[in-house]
Amino acid sequence: MREITLTLRNQVGLHARPAALFVQAAKNFESTINVCKDDRAVDAKSILSVLTLGAESGAVITIRAEGDDEDLAIAGLQKLIESNFGEAHASA
Amino acid sequence: MRRLEGIPASAGIAIGSVVVYRPAVVSTERRPVANPDEELTRWQRAVERAKRELTEIHRQSAATAGAPMAAIFEAQRMFLEDPALLEAVQSQIRAGVNAEAALSDGIEKFATMLANVNDAYLRERAADVRDVGQRVLRALAGADANPLALLNTPALIIALDLSPSDTAQMNRAVTLGFATARGGMTSHTAILARTLGLPAVVGLGDQLLGQLADGATVIIDGQAGVLMIDPDDATLAEYRSRATRWETARQTAQSSAQTPAITRDGHRVEVVANIGNLESAQSALAFGAEGVGLLRAEFLFLDRATLPDEEEQYTAYRAIAKLMGTRPLIVRTLDVGGDKPLPYLDLGKELNPFLGYRAIRVSLANPEMFKTQLRAILRAGAGNNVKIMFPMIATVEEVRAARKLLDEARGELATRGASFAEQMEVGMMIEVPAAAVAASLLAHEVDFFSLGTNDLIQYTLAADRTNERVGYLYDPLYPAILLLIKQVIDSAHAASRWVGMCGEMAGDLDAVPLLLGLGLDEFSVNAASIPQVKSLIRALDLRAMQDLATRALEKSTATEIRTLVRAAIQKT
């Protein structure tokens, strides 16, 4: 089992499109993946469950992965979160 | 007369008779089923049908209601693929419960959890979950279309709440306004009403529906957030005159915004919009845009896990091009860099992303990705007035490399037999000082220039405009900037090329007179600035502005230039 604890630094946290991106990314891995906030742990491949965490910007979350590709899963999800989900504003 | 107060969701006044929308209720009563396997099949068919419907509505609303509305249906479709929801429902069905009851339990479980999170956004998503549940229930019952789609006489729509599915299927031509019992400023009804410019009051309370029957006369005052039921004659008369005044004021602003920007001595310039998606294209037209001078294509690339394919890009560009009709649409190719990271494209972490790997540099280094975008733009140009523009060009070599890939993209489309624009104007942004200095060389390589002054100013003065300590250097009226702009416009005109500007400077009312005098052909500004820029240009005289520009270039400081311009404008 591998786990990592991260702070959400994007604007909206695990809401809206970032939540969808996170779940889509999690689905790419075979491992069982949970995402935990405070004392709740939910299936990272379930968009509805992830949304119910209400993880806003600044929230601290822990991701746990267990399975053959657990290292890849943790690295991939960490990269997505640390890129702030590609969130940015276009400018002229 | 009864008066109800709610939340003012969208301004305007609507007076008329109501249609009270009560969605068909499908029974979710629990009953045992003899054959759970058959029930599972019935459930799966209903889910498949609901997913097909959502895919179709997503496609339609992307074209008519804009990307944010369309994204809602994409999210709803994801809910129907959610393993936690599917398992909650299917485990009950396997235990012998009917699909309707199992679905209703599963939906309520998640909707309640979302509604209980202290977050306005998530509470609205609870409505999405219930909406998708209703859709599957209708599919299970084999029920048909939404009654709102069948509406055929002008009416105000009263409802408990309107779901995205309801509003997507509604006959908009006959909808005068909305009043709903539930919902807030960010509910679907509110957002849609503002997009369509229809008056709306939301959050009127659940007692609303009990007080109204079809055909009742009501007034919706979207500004005050008030609904009046069975108004008396005096109130009706007052609101009719207010509605007329509101409409007149709107039309006056509108009508002058829709007329062209011609100076007093008869010189016409184009005033177009900078936009970021289909929705902003719609509002740009309402503000009087004569086209789009800058479409930031990044909306297709940001906030997602994978690159958009050619088809998706083509559909998005074509939707905007169609909306513009014969008006021009200039699509800028991808403009990303280390400050706008993309999960699917390794841009690296750079010490200095604004001087690094970004914009055309990224496109040229990823030719397949770039050609995918070029093919999509070329195809969107078939039968439409689409032009292409490369960002952040610094050298002639870069333009030639980009044009070579554009030729390859054309060749690929021709081989495939696809229809595309054979002749498309190709332009480049002037935002790197090197390009401004060498404009006379670059003018032979492209059909037009567009001055990207936001970056041009910060690169020329070596000052990051978001850094407060050097912010004083970010001023478009510095002589260095005006000299560069003059150099670019003169070089382009000498080669018979036209020049636009898509930076904020084009909407700066102190700069507009000088830009006009320097010979700028096209002003591309944020939609809301269009009416003001047009009316300023109409008050000016081209020859006087040419003199003004000459005198401005004799000054040494930005302050002197600003004083000179303001004094000249006051006289007109």
Describe the structure.
Chain A has helices spanning 16-27, 47-52, 70-82; strands at 2-7, 32-37, 40-43, 60-66. Chain A has three helices and four strands. With 92 residues, chain A is of the alpha+beta class. The termini of chain A are far apart. Chain B has an eight-stranded mixed sheet with strand order 1-8-7-3-4-5-6-2. With 572 residues, chain B is α/β, with parallel strands linked by helices. Chain B has 21 helices and 17 strands. In chain B, helix 1 (36-64) runs antiparallel to helix 2 (67-79) and helix 8 (233-258) packs across helix 19. Chain B has three domains: 24-145, Enzyme I, Chain A, domain 2, CATH 1.10.274.10; 152-202 and 214-254, 3-Layer(bba) Sandwich (Glucose Oxidase, domain 1), CATH 3.50.30; 265-571, Phosphoenolpyruvate-binding domains (TIM Barrel, Alpha-Beta Barrel). The mean pLDDT of chain B is 89. Chain B is globular and about 85 Å long. Classes of the chains: A alpha+beta (92), B alpha/beta (572). Chains A and B meet through helix 1 and helix 2 of A and helix 2, helix 3, helix 4, helix 5 and helix 16 of B.
Mean pLDDT of chain A: 88
Describe the biggest sheet of chain A? 4 strands, antiparallel
CATH superfamily of the largest domain in chain B: Phosphoenolpyruvate-binding domains
CATH topology of the largest domain in chain B: TIM Barrel
Overall helicity of chain A:
25-40%
For the biggest β-sheet of chain B, the strand order reads: 1-8-7-3-4-5-6-2
Strand-pairing-aware structural class of chain A: alpha+beta
* Largest sheet, spatial ordering of strands of chain A: 1-4-2-3
Topology of helices and strands:
The complex is a heterodimer of chains A (92) and B (572).
Chain A: E1 2-7, H1 16-27, E2 32-37, E3 40-43, H2 47-52, E4 60-66, H3 70-82
Helix pairs in contact in A: 1-3
Chain B: E1 2-5, E2 7-10, E3 13-21, H1 36-64, H2 67-79, H3 83-94, H4 99-116, H5 120-141, E4 155-159, H6 164-169, E5 175-180, H7 188-196, E6 200-202, E7 217-221, E8 226-229, H8 233-258, E9 261-262, E10 268-275, H9 278-286, E11 292-296, H10 310-324, E12 329-332, H11 360-365, H12 367-380, E13 386-390, H13 396-416, E14 426-430, H14 433-437, H15 439-442, E15 448-451, H16 453-460, H17 479-494, E16 498-501, H18 512-518, E17 522-526, H19 530-538, H20 542-552, H21 558-571
Parallel strand pairs in B: 3-4, 4-5, 5-6, 10-11, 10-17, 11-12, 12-13, 13-14, 14-15, 15-16, 16-17
Antiparallel strand pairs in B: 1-8, 2-6, 3-7, 7-8, 9-10
Helix pairs in contact in B: 1-2, 1-5, 2-5, 3-4, 4-5, 8-19, 9-10, 10-12, 12-13, 18-20
